[in-house]
Amino acid sequence: MDKVQIDEIKRSINILDVIGDYVELHRAGKGYKALCPFHVEKTPSFYVMPDRQFYHCFGCGKGGDVISFVMDMEGLKFTEAVELLAKRAGIVIKSAPERGGHKSLTDVMEKALSIYRDCLEGASGEIARRYLIKRDLPKEWWSHFEIGWAPPAWDYLWRALSKAGIPAKAVIECGLVVEGSRGLYDRFRGRVIFPVRDVTGRLVGFGGRSLSGEGAKYINTPEGPLFHKGSCLYLLNLAKDAIRERGRAILVEGYMDAIRLHMAGFREAVASLGTALTEEQGKLLKRFTNSCYVCYDADSAGREASIRGMYILQALGLQVNIVSLPPDRDPDEFLQEKGGKAFEELLKKSLPLPLYHIKIREDLLNDLNLRKKVVEELIEGLSRIDLPDLAPFIPQIAAKLGMPRHALEDELLSARANVAKTRGEKKGKRGNPSVYINAEEQKKRMIDAEEAALFSLLWNDLTKRYNLNPEDVFPLISDDRLKTLIAALLNGEQPEELEERWLKSGDRFPLEALALGNAFCQQFDDRTEIWDVIVNALKVKAMKSRYNALYSKMLRGEATRDEIEEVQKIASVLKGGKMGI
User: What Pfam family does this protein match (any one) (predicted)?
Assistant: First the structure.
């Protein structure tokens, strides 16, 4: 891949925008901080430095630039991450062909979408166009949501892709065709097509709505290399900015529900592609907001699904409200009949999780034969919410359950303890790994922040690299790994070439060291001569290390006269605090 284009892509991408798609960033001095997306933590230790276009987590040590971040978050190879960022920046690059000269799976998906969209406009798409118009989905919105049409022919798509030179293996991996006794045939036939893109806009799957009445009403791309249903939210790539702006997400079940909400001005709407909300989907929402309005269908299945989903979201720290629709109505139908203002009123009347759960169980609570079981269900569910979040609703819940407040709180605490115990036992059965860390291995992994800062300063300053005497630097560095990296820079290797080589080889240490160094330098203001401060600190550290080694020899009676004199000189210098840079 052309290094000039890689540099152009990195210059065109703001690392804050990219990382902001995954975590909620907050201003912290000259940078931004967030909860680390790479490990579980309650206090933010993940920092982004926009001026240096780097990130670093002081908790787990992860760090790097925008390319390495996308590689880690999306599980992509170097070239795939660069291509994804290029599309985001609107830069056209020649995709690196996969083995055998074939296109990547994402290219195959985009080609299939292009065919589906052409079919919607062609002769075979007449039935689909009539359906969309009947559903009050005007033509001007079709391209916005990239809606297409899969003709009812047995293998229309497969024949078109085959003519384009795309191999069967790639089409099968994309879930576009199925292998049958009569050969390959299209998975989606006679269906309106809804493309599913991930949070970055990468096309990962399709949903298809049958118009013939045969088979399932909706089908999705099967699980595969690209598509993981439980990790996607339909329209999140379009909704994420509105979610941030409005401080809330609206979660619905189906494609048309989400589309209708966007058309009505609720651009913060996303769909869960079914009723079984997953923790991964909840984490996606948590990246952009702390508030979610769940608006599933009004039938009993929808209510039960919303309850299960609410607790998943609540456990992740989201404030969840349930929007109640009239009987036998879904969001699409409601909006068509009543309009956006009426839906906004429903949002205002929505109930938080605890009160909604109590409300839909009221009738059962009045049944003496079921009351005990229902109370147990409610206590078990409500115990998953932290007591401070539950506190405003405790009086109402206690009244509904006919329990004194203190008794309710005791029951909730007991239920929480039981859940924690059960989780611990399950972990034990799986062979929970030891919490003890091998000290030597941990020591090898640690990076000295000031040594990393010196590496960072050399990386970012061409003049310093060319004018510096290596003999003045290497004695200050104790980490052999950093010595090797600094040697490469001082020997004239270009940072861009080094970075590409590291990422392609999977060597993450250099970028993590660089990110740590950049983060360490962020603490100084613009008036500080950072180079002098870092070098002085490393000289002090090196002298203290030498002093300790010689002092130990003195205590053992092994030090020479010259070494004893050196100890005295070092002690004098350290006491005076003047290093003479």
Answer: Zn_ribbon_DnaG
Contact assessment for residue 293 and residue 321, using Cβ atoms and an 8 Å cutoff: yes
Structure tokens at 334: 């409601």
Inter-residue contact 405 to 398 (CB < 8 Å) = yes
- Residue 498's pLDDT band, with cuts at 50, 70 and 90, is confident
Is 0.90 surpassed by the pTM of this model?
no
Euclidean distance between CA atoms 538 and 500, whole angstroms:
29
Instruction: Count H helices and E strands in the chain, helices first.
Output: 29, 16
Per the structure block, which two tokens stand in for 61? 């040590």
Contact by Cβ (8 Å): 184, 177: yes
Tell me the two tokens of residue 25: 């960033």
Q: Which of 432, 445, 390, 393 is nearest to 413 (CA)?
A: 390
Q: Do the Cβ atoms of 30 and 523 come closer than 8 Å?
A: no
Distance (Å, rounded) from C-alpha 74 to C-alpha 549? 47
Cite the DSSP H helix spans in 234-290: 236-246, 255-263, 279-286
In angstroms, how far is CA 226 from the centroid of its own chain?
Answer: 16
For the segment 186-191, the average pLDDT, to the nearest whole number, is 95
Cα–Cα distance for residue pair 203/83, rounded to 1 Å: 13
Query: C-alpha distances in angstroms, 327 versus 277, 294, 334, 389?
Result: 22, 16, 10, 30
> 436: how many CB neighbours lie within 10 A of its CB?
6
Rounded distance, CA 464 to CA 247, Å? 46
